[in-house]
Each structure stands twice: as structure tokens, then as C-alpha cells.
Amino acid sequence: MADKVLMKGNEAIAEAAIRAGCRHYFGYPITPQTEVAAYMAKRMPKIEGGVFLQAESEISAINMVYGVAGAGFRVMTSSSSPGISLKQEGISYLAGSDLPALIVNVQRGGPGLGGIQPSQSDYFQATRGGGHGDYHLIVLAPASVQEMADLTIKAFDLSDKYRVPAMLLADGTMGQMMEPVELPDSVDTLKVEKPWAVTGTQKKREHNIVNSLYLAPEKLEQTNLERFERYKAIEENEALYEEFMMEDAEYCVVAYGITARVSKNAVIAAREQGIRVGMIRPITLWPFPKKAIADVTDKVKAFISVELSMGQMIEDVKLASSCKKPVYLCSRVGGVITTPEQVLETIKKTAGGNE
Amino acid sequence: MSEKRFLFSGFGGQGILFAGKFVAYKGLMDDKQVSWLPSYGPEMRGGTASCGVIVSDESVGSPIVSNPNILVAMNLPSLDKYEDSVESGGMIFADSSLIERKVKRDDVKVFYIPATRLARDNGVPTLANMIIVGKIMKELGEFEGDSLNAALKKVISAKHADMLEVNLKAMRLGAEY
Amino acid sequence: MVVFEKPKSLTDAQFHYCPGCTHGIIHRLVAQAIDELGIEGKTVGVAPVGCAVMAYDYFACDMVEAAHGRAPAVATGLKRCMPENVIFTYQGDGDLASIGMAETVHAATRNENITIIFVNNAIYGMTGGQMAPTSLPGQVTQTSPYGRDVKTAGYPVRVSEMLATLEGPEFITRVAVNNVKNVKAAGAAIKKAFENQINGKGFSLVEVVSSCPTNWGKTPVDALKWLEENMLPYYPLGVYKDRSAEEGK
Fold it and tell me: What is the pTM of this model?
């Protein structure tokens, strides 16, 4: 067994990325994710072929990512909410050019410059695409430092497999906290051929073009349709979630990332008070684990969406449950984090109101 | 206490995060589940710093320590801010060389340690934090055993291996106070 | 017998450029340089947003289409992951000197080992003739219908002069394609900019003063005359920085 070490979430992302074969990192300083860049700055120069570059802007960083992704190498960038907004142009181009890459968003409160404390208010931006055009990212939401590492590796694999950029959607607590992490010495990652990569023709093949421009509407439509076939396959095969105490649950808390950790305490406390409540924790936010929600919709009396936003994921819970059962929101915003007590109160109120 | 929820607080520069990190590693060495969550942002540069550490037999749910059962207050603003949040029956460790007032609560166990003065008088001026940690370990009955040394080795980088003995000295000062 | 041949580094695709546009000449010069250096198989080009947006169809090497202004950042990524390859960008004035100014300046100051072909025709062509960062004082465009008023629109940017003040870049030069002599000199400069990269010397930018008859509202011949009388005085040709030559290497 590999040695367990205490690591910050941000550092776990960086080390996992390196072990997943990522040798190219481009970033720009922003709290609360700067440790990712700092870690990469320290490690990459010591690794063969390792590249760390502090870009002049978030916009440049994502376009450097675009260049490396076009050449077929594993590549990543990381930032926090305002920086992710700046990257949206490049992310849209990555999606439109079908390039795999990893974008990490360690969320902080917004809108605007917002604050630097943890938030989950970029859910819509992450799960609906974020930039212009019809597209999705594969969005993974870690709820522990171990998952910060594991899902980073998974994100690279899924991104390569489907030629869809992936986003790791964390928040300030996940980035800053330390927990024990076990990292395997060698990571068994997906190796895919990338015949489309622009590595030079070597005069042995026709030239490759990495591009998202199609002036003929029918052709552009075709690329969209083809891409959505892949999205369909992702939705069918890659949705991930965790169930907690759901066997006999009458109420279902839905929460991801830090709020799932907080909610777990509340679910345990509610159970001690005799309330039959459980939790579904989406691990992939896109694809959203619709089936898991749909499957329990007939069994539960109500859902409670716990999130650090004014109510974004709640829409997916409503959609997945076809609005057959009430869905309540339990939230704090602006960098304030819901407490187990607040979640417990919401559970009790929901249970009381439905007796 | 099957779940110890530590809250370390004080000025930036007092080694608050380091003390928390040691306690987290100590838990890890004892095969416990642990989490360590610092406050971050401008307060790291001179204002108040804090970090929450959970050491538990069960997997850690929320890593946020809002009702600690062990509070370390290394300055007055920290005691003012967090005294009321301590769980009834919990413990408060206060650096009495920097905090002149007494703890108001009577449902918690309080330990006054003049850590800053002890550190200065004993030639370890930067290790008031570890003097308090030594006292905590002693009160929890965890001062003996291999995990203490092992944890210290984990938090002190190889580069500063010479700091190991001084840290142990500081912890002993606290334990014996 | 001299046979006129198309460079191998150009595809068979027909250019979409307007009659009299100098992009065709500049494409050809770039392709010739690639041919002469025998680097087609390891060259990756980055196309801009602007008139040359579809350059990816014309160059036979691997190509990437970048977002508007971002070509130097994309090229940085490509070069950093494939240091043995040859990476060039081909950009217009709006792309390079307006929306992409930050990317340009920082690639230059990092002395990023890439080659940039900067086509300066003092106007936004593809969108139909708007004022560019290099449009001249008094120049009438769709968005400066009364002539560029420097009091409100500021002055045109002399990119080569500005970049030459930086410590970073290896080679900055301004050429033009208004006559045979200048075309030849432009070809030599472009080739040198590629050679510099091959030799690991670093950031090399060739600014090519060129014309846009369509959006200037002139015949191709009159456009070249306007270029000579108006652009060249404001944008003097010459080598603005050549570190190796200056250091006697």
C-alpha cells in the first residue's frame, strides 16, 4: 500500500495530474487555488518534459492549453470563479474543436470579484457549457481530498475517451483542506490514439487541422449533432453518484462537494431523531445522475437540494424527478457555508410539513 | 471523545497552522480519520489565523469546526471570538502570557499556559504553539508513544531535521507545566 | 528554363482573397521559406481570426485555428510541448495589435521560440473595413467615417518599434510587399525568422506592410500607391531588432 500522506486538496490535484501523465500546466494566480500552480511550478521542471508556465492572463493560459491539447498531450489549467469566466472563450474553442483537456475551478463567491471564500455558485456555468455555443463539459465534483486526486485522474481519462474537455468543480474548502491521501505510484490511465493531433505531418499524411470554424451551416450543424451523440453516450455511461442511507429513506438530500460533507452530519443527526432521510451525492454534475434521482422519486416524499448558491442544482433535481415531488432548497451564499444544524433544521421542517 | 474537534486560533505567525498540522498527522499516525482546514485570505497576513482539525474514529463528515471540543486561543481576539462556540464539557487552552482575562465559561475545562513567556525563557521563542500542543497531548493522555515522534517527523521537513529536538523540548515544557 | 511552381507547402485549395490582396503573396513567401528549409513535415501553423482565418486550408502543414488574438498563446502551448517542431502564427493587425496585444507582447518578452508573420494593412478586412489599431490618422473607415480622429481614437500603434524596446525578442523587422524588390526582401526576412527558430534563437516577428484594395476603396494599383505614400512614412521599413547580429553572432 502506498503511504498515506496529508495533502491540501489543491496539491492533491496537481500531484494526481502529474501521475496521470499531465506534463503541461498553464495558470495564473488567483485565490483559493494558487497552490495548484505553486505545486506545478516546483515539480514540473524536475520531471522530464514537464512544462509549467505562468501565463500573462487567464485567457492566455487557456489558449496555451488549447495549443497543447491540439498537439494531443495531456494538459491542464486551474483557476477560481472570476478566472474561469475569463477562460470561457478558450473552453468553448476546446469544445468546438473536440479537444481533451482538464480545467479546474476551485470556486469562490460571486458574481463579479465576489469574495475568496468557498462557494458553489458556478454550477450553471460549469454544467451548461459556460461559454458560447451548444456544448457540455464533463464535470466532476470531488467531496474529499482523496477524490480531488482520484477524480483528476478520471477527468483526464474521460476527456481523452470522448474528446470532451473536463472540469473539476471544487470549492475553497476542498482546495484548502488537508486530508489523508493515498496516491498509487503508477496510475493506470487510459491511453488513446490521437490521429487528429497536430504534431507535424512528417510528410506521411494529409495535414491535420484543429478548428471550430465551419462557415457552411449544414456542416456546422453536423459537427454539433455528432458531438451530441458523444454527449448521449456520456450521459448513458458515465454518471456517477454515491448513496448514503437511502435504503428506506422518505426524504432525500441531494448535495455535492463540501455541502455533501456538511449534509452527511445532518443526515446522521436526523436519523438519530428518527427521521428516515438519506442522501444522494452527485459525483458527476454533468452528466447529472438523473436516473438515481428518478429511481427514488416514487419512494421519497420530498427532496432537499443543499448547495452554496441561490438554487442552481435544484433545477436538475426538479428535472430529474419530473417535479413529481417537492424539492426544497437549503443554501448559504457569498462564501458562507451551510452548517449541519441548518441542514438538520431543513430536514426536520420538511419532514414535519409532510407528516 | 470519539471525535476530537480542535480549533487553533491566534495571530498569523504564531504557528497556528503548524500546530494544527501536527495534531492532524498525530491522528493519521494513530490510524484515525482526520481533516485539517485553515482559514485563508487576508487574515493570514498579520490578523487572526485559525484552523480546524478533526480527529475521529469514523470518517469525517463536515471538515468545518464550528463547535470545537478543544479550543486553543493564543491571543485575546481569538478567545473573545471562539469561547462561546466550545462544546459544553470541552477544553480551552489559553496562552496566559498574552491573554490577561479569565475564561467566562464554567462548563468547560480551562488550561492557562504562559506559553509565549515559557518559550522565550527557555530559548525556543518561536515555539509557544508547540508548548501548548505538548500540554494538550499530556491532557489527552497522548504524550507517550511512537506516533508523537512520527508525526513530528512528518510535519518537519527533512531540510529542517535539526528542529526536531527543539520541538520536542517545547512540547515537553508544555506537558510538564 | 524557369518553371513557375507552386510551393509544396501550399495545398491545392484556391485562395478566397480579393483581387489585388497581398495575402496571397505573403502566403506564398511563407510556404517558400518552409519548402526551402525542408521543414514542412514538422511545421505547425496557427491561423488567426481575420481575413487569413482560412489559412489552415491553404498551408499544407498541420494547422490550428486560434481564437481572435490568441495565436501567440496557442503557439506557445504548441512550442512548449513540441520544442523540436517549428511553430508559426499568421496574424492581421486587429488580431495581433488590438485584441491580442497582451499575447503578442508577452510572447515577445518571454522570447518564445516561435515565428510570427504580422500582416499590417491598416484595416479590419474580413468584417468589412473598420478602423484598426494601425489605421492612420485621418484614415476613413467604416468606424471612422470622418477619418481617424486621434483626439478620440488615439494614434496608430507601431508594433515593430514597440516590441523592439523589449529585452526579450530576437528579431523584429518590418518589410512590405508593394514591389518586386520589397517582396524579395520580405521573403528573405520571413526565411530568417524561421531559421532563427530552428537555431533556437527565439521570438522572431516579421511585420509585413500590405494593402487592402477592397476596404480601402481603391484599385490594386492605387492601393499600392497609397501604401507607399501614406503607410511607409508612418511605418518605415527596416530591421528593428536583431540580437544575434547586434551581438556579432
Answer: 0.95
